[in-house]
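Holo prediction — S-adenosylmethionine.
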Amino acid sequence: MRGWIYDRLVAGMTTGWYREVLDRLPNGARVLDVGIGTGAALAGCAELVRSKDLQVVGLDIDPDYLERCRGEMARAGLAGHVRPVLASVYDHDDGPYDAVYFSASLMLLPDPVAAISHTAKLLTPQGRLFSTQTFHHRRSAVLERIKPMLHRVTTIHFGRVTYEHELRNAFIAAGVELVELTTMSDKGRSSYRLAVGRVRGAEGDLGDGRASAA
Ligand SMILES: C[S@@+](CC[C@H](N)C(=O)[O-])C[C@H]1O[C@@H](n2cnc3c(N)ncnc32)[C@H](O)[C@@H]1O
């Protein structure tokens, strides 16, 4: 039931976020999806995953979401491409990965800096760290109080209100260079943005032909 609610309320939006990131990956990329959830957003991009022959490890700590995710991957024909794993990001030591992706998950983690620095160590030298999420433009004490409580009515953890400087500071503290921060969609008081990071000192691009420096 919780997974069904998530898919109805959020996955439609995050499917577009996944598409933005997966579009940028080279064929055959090995991807770590941190907080894959029910997998509905990734399944919405099934054709892209298959055509690019992406290999995805999907981490999550929520057993109910992961169970739904396994069914979702099978139905979407992605069982050979996506491996859902019940584990916290902080305990995952596999790799190397060409891309680490946090979709709506980075700033709801208890320690985003540790999550960035840990997963950056799992990247290849040319690898990239992607994060998509909502940013609020102006401080709102009311929203800051309400957002963390939304899970009581929706069962979904939306994390806390996040401002741009917090993400920038998290990347700096983790020693990962933020090479791009793109607005995917502007909602007025908030926006959906894509952040791309690379390990400091790493040369070259991911192989998708895009410049690696912002
Ligand atoms: C808002 S959902 C995002 C789901 C999906 N990525 C999407 O964009 O639709 C955030 C997910 O992060 C997961 N999560 C929370 N803490 C985690 C951790 N320490 N390690 C891995 N996943 C975690 C949650 O269980 C939840 O499924």
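READOUT: The chain is about 35% helix and 25% strand.
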